[in-house]
Write a structure and sequence with these properties.
The complex is a heterodimer of chains A (108) and B (110).
Chain A: E1 2-5, E2 9-13, E3 18-26, E4 29-37, E5 44-49, E6 53-57, E7 60-65, E8 70-75, E9 84-92, E10 95-98, E11 102-107
Parallel strand pairs in A: 2-11
Antiparallel strand pairs in A: 1-3, 3-8, 4-5, 4-9, 6-7, 7-8, 9-10, 9-11
Chain B: E1 5-7, E2 10-13, E3 19-24, E4 31-37, E5 43-50, E6 53-57, E7 64-68, E8 74-78, E9 87-95, E10 98-101, E11 105-109
Parallel strand pairs in B: 2-11
Antiparallel strand pairs in B: 1-3, 3-8, 4-5, 4-9, 5-6, 7-8, 9-10, 9-11
């Protein structure tokens, strides 16, 4: 089986930094995705970590520790358009299993 | 445009009815994945097809079925619809490690 946990909601201020954590327990782990999803829209790809460590891509960075079953998504210089749900997902046995997502609210 | 095409975008139907949702993967992608997203739930994996064959099954109800055709488009059939089947239904296709989602079909059962 699999279990993916992330906070339900978070609030941050425009221009600030926020870290969204994700823990997982699963067999057959191949990698971990982060997706962004605006309400009513399709998820869009942010990052994919296969190996331990930090990967930086512009204002967004993603970290993975396979031994701890832990990942985080770091968003810097927050903008109002970053208000969305952020989905942690495990690549397991040739399919993606999603967590319930973290709804991020950005305050001006 | 992600390259994954889903039709229709919206569907309203009555309980007990049957509907068919359609998905065309990106050109060259052989896999199609179907997901259901209800208001209070995350994306739930339903079923996966690869080059016309069923590859994996998730939390798909017996009232639901799917298939992938020789041209690689896929259809998800939902029958004996209930109010609780109201949700967004997404399909995704895959090339390497990249999964791309279509814009979804919003199904409302009344």
């Amino acid at each position: 089986g699999q279990n993916i946990d992330q906070p339900t909601e978070m609030t941050a201020t425009e221009g600030a930094i926020v870290q969204i954590n994700c823990t997982y327990q699963t067999s057959g782990f191949n990698g971990l995705f982060w997706y962004q999803q605006h309400a009513g829209e399709a998820p869009t790809f942010l990052s994919y970590n296969v190996l331990d460590g930090l990967e930086e891509k512009g204002r967004f960075s993603s970290f993975l520790s396979r031994s701890k079953g832990y990942s985080y998504l770091l968003l810097k210089e927050l903008q109002m358009k970053d208000s969305a749900s952020y989905l942690c997902a495990v690549n397991r046995d040739d399919k993606i299993i999603f967590g319930k997502g973290t709804r991020l609210h950005i305050l001006p | 445009d992600s390259g994954v095409t889903q039709t229709p975008k919206h569907l309203i139907t009555a309980t007990g009815q049957r509907v068919t949702l359609r998905c065309s993967p990106r050109s060259g992608d052989l896999s199609v994945y179907w997901y259901q997203q209800s208001l209070d739930q995350g994306l739930q994996f339903l079923i996966q097809y690869y080059n016309g064959e069923e590859r994996a099954k998730g939390n798909i109800l017996e009232r639901f079925s799917a298939q992938q055709f020789p041209d690689l488009h896929s259809e998800l059939n939902l029958s004996s619809l209930e109010l609780g089947d109201s949700a967004l239904y997404f399909c995704a296709s895959r090339q390497g490690d990249g999964y791309t989602f279509g814009s979804g079909t919003r199904l409302t059962v009344v």
